[in-house]
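Section 5.1 Outputs to date
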Amino acid sequence: MDLGSLVYASELTRAREKALAALVKLAGGKQRNRALGLLGLTAGQAEELDRDAALLDAPAAEAGTVYTGVLYQHLDLASLSETARDRARERVLVASALWGVVALDDRIPAYRLSIGARLPALTKTGLAAYWRAPLAKALPDDPGALVVDMRSGGYAAAWRPRHATLVEVKASTADGKPISHMAKAVRGTVTRELLRSPQPATTPEDVATAAEKGDGVGRVELSAPAGGGAGAYVVNVIAAA
């Protein structure tokens, strides 16, 4: 991997170098049980330490193929049209505890590091706090722009726009209880519909409309910031009873 080839290289390369060095040092150290605990891994996941310890020499692939969780399964990038995939490369950023953010066509090695993990050699305040200043410097935040947020809470804590309109996509039961496992699937589906749309979403209403078109999506509600303030709009997908 070439750190200089990643998106926002001029703003984020130094922070990425430090995070990578701290992870490799922890994973390759002699205190394996301590490393497992700090990274939130079980004894049965010890092979992930070996993967992280070898990151400096590991083969790289496009981020869109490296990330394979539930959200990415429902996004199903490979099955999108070439036009939609071009939109994804232009408009989608993936939040990362190791790289800050990456674009889908950035080449990275497979790794294991969650935003809730701890890297004592890097920071005492947590990875979300570590990335806050670099991301604030790097990411665009223009008045009138629309940011659609598909991140979980830990990653969202690393950066929020101050000027752009923010729309968070969530999932809940009919009585308002969050459904975290369903939210990942919903976010992947809504991302897919946004990329398939001939016109880019420019308003929270556009995001809600895209959500309604997703396969298997239940009732959709759009709520505005409380009191008309500067908080986030929320597109909430409500599970069928």
